[in-house]
From TrEMBL:
Gene3D superfamilies cross-referenced by the UniProt entry: Alkaline Phosphatase, subunit A
Record carries keyword Hydrolase: yes
Protein name per UniProt: Sulfatase-like hydrolase/transferase
Coiled-coil stretches: none
Region feature (Disordered): 447-467
Keywords recorded for this protein, A-Z: Hydrolase, Metal-binding
Single GO molecular function: sulfuric ester hydrolase activity
Protein family per UniProt: Belongs to the sulfatase family.
PANTHER family registered for this protein in UniProt: IDURONATE 2-SULFATASE
Alphabetical list of Pfam families matching this protein: Sulfatase (PF00884)
InterPro entries in the record: Alkaline_phosphatase_core_sf, Sulfatase_CS, Sulfatase_N
Domain annotation Sulfatase N-terminal: ranges: 5-346
Domain of life: Bacteria
Species name: Nonomuraea cypriaca
Amino acid sequence: MTTAPNILLITTDQQRHDTIGPRAPEFLRTPHLDHLAREGVRFDAAYAQTAICVPARTSIMTGQSPFAHGMTCNGSTSDVMGRDDTLPAVLRGRGYGTAAIGKMHFTPPRARHGFDELVLPDDYYRWMRESGIPERPMRTGLGQNELYPGTSTVPESLTLTSWIAEESVRYIRDRRDPTAPFFLWTSFSKPHPPLDPPEPYASMYRDAPIPEPVFGDWSGDDRCPEAVKRWRQRQSYDLVPPGVIKAARAAYYGLVTHIDYAIGHILAALQDVGLFDDTLIVFTSDHGEYLGDHHTGSKVFFHDASARLPFLLRPPKSWHTHWHGTASEALATHADILPTLLAAAGGRPGPGVEGQNLLAVLSGDEPPRSHLCATATEAPSADPLYHAITDGRHKYIWYPEGPASQLFDLADDPLELTDLSGEERTAGVQEDLRRELVRHLNEYGSLTCDRLPETPPRGDSTADRRARSWPGYHTEWTEADVRH
């Protein structure tokens, strides 16, 4: 590690953990991610501490947990970070040229937060409108929260996924400073809905043995925590027919493969300029997607379908680490990315960084964390939807509304089909996790006592919830377009 490597961070939006590694369906085609796993390390116990887009990205940028940076729902990134001490800023301080290409979810969108260069989906939509191309992207009418399949309204070469990859290729080949190492964050906006892959991906898995959704013994209306039940009823995910869920899953897998093949263009560009072997590559997602599991869709809660992450770290070949083709059970999260990449660049994080240097964990120089805590809210200053904790083997989730709790044994029950929270045989495990969760919340000022928060049921009806949903209809119009 004597020479600072080039660094490529690749993220996707709403990609489940079981789309890579041994839990991925055998039919799913991800040759480039598989190759990175063979050359690197797969972290099988990686989690989003808040399974929502902006909090996850804020943790990547700051190296802090949501408990520290305070972003526990989608909101303005400029409220919690500026241009100093962010991931690109600290790498720029080590001599790196920095660029972000794709979905950043910054507020305002052109806030650089320390990046030298920012290329956004807005640029793609503007290019599509100004180029004279008659096709328009994502005109299926499907919203960004809907669990229904569609097909791309533009060919593969004109999709946002392909454009993000090609802009990344242009940066690697033409726009970077060749006299300095680079840090490039390539951020794909898929497989987040709308589930509209282009051909050949739209039909690639239609006849595949698509896994059926799983339903925990707790996911029926009689046992489901009220917060989870309200979420799925507001979007009516529990009313989506099984045939539609199967088609939606096929489209989702198509989007994953489209991204993988697009990543192949980026890896080829690194190869073409002689940098592939010497580039540190990290791949992950901001969170997962229920895809009908437990009668719901989207994300937010701390079940594995929603919060567990695909996470790969491929070191430069010159490091001779002997990590290639291995899997780690160390608990990992988004906040670990900043200290890990900074360590690769020869630096040390500042005092506000909470994440772990995963390179030190892999080499045995630091022990892995013993616990990882999580939380989320619906809006700023709102009551928490849940607080949660995992030690890698067991997971405890506390829902203040009601209140309600869940306990899962992830070793014996990886699909979280059985809630053990009321069983005497697991009472000791639950109490230990609960005590550690209370200690953690007190440390961050979320609690000032030894009791987890409780709130009464809101009393809203199922009909009220279904009438207040927002499917997030897609639009390519930017804020500037609306103003003018």
